[in-house]
Amino acid sequence: CETCSKEEAKYRCPRCMKYSCSLLCVKKHKLALNCNGVRDKTAFVSINEFTDLNLLSDYRFLEDVGRTADAAARRCTMHSPATKRLLYCLRNKARGCNIELKTLPVGFTKRRENSTTFNSIENKFYWHLKLVFPHCHAEYTLKGVPDDKTLADILKPYIDPVESDPVVCQRLKIYTASPQSDVQILMKIENRSRNSVRYNKLDASRSLLENLKGKVIIEYPTLFVVLKTLKNDMVILGQDGSEPTENAGSESSSLSSMEEGEIRDS
Prior knowledge:
By secondary structure, the protein is an alpha+beta fold. The protein has eight helices and twelve strands. The strands form three sheets. Strands 4, 5, 6, 7, 8, 10, 11 and 12 form an eight-stranded mixed beta sheet that branches. 19% of the residues are buried. It holds the Pfam family zf-HIT.
């Protein structure tokens, strides 16, 4: 025993590696050396002394760090006062445009992604917008899209045979090769049950703001660009007699194949 030097040692401190013979000597050595008795998982070990036990210890240490980091990321924290004011302003301005804008708590993916702003001088929204092309399994995120821009102009860099980017055009070949009249733009209707997913049909010739009026938006709009000729799993509401259209000037559709591409944490 390195504390009393009388009895045979039975214990070894994981922290400082001192030998002790009893609980009394363990307490004495902790007090004398200000030792907490907890093994230092980050202590240096030379390669000559490195064993399988050290490797296992390092692996478990990294697992603990990963769990701690994940728990911290998932922890729901409160919005700062400045962020609360900004979100209140966005919701209030959207309400003035007949748009019900809903925001999610801190920690949700869509809350972190959203970059939507409102320019009070121009009295205009600049939307964070996501475009989903389900037939090509492609998604694109746009930032700062002015609300007075038409949907047709928004889609030009993606599906227009002349103005679209060559790389994007190749990926979305099925869209660029189809007539523009065959393209439909849909937006999911929020606040419906999972087994009753429906989509509003939007007007490409109208502005983004006009299309969003009367809609419920969670954080930012997500638009689904589909082709009418590929609607074997698509049901347009009001045409099959099962359900009436929800809005007089728009149609809705059910896209069961698109559910996999939805933002699930919304």
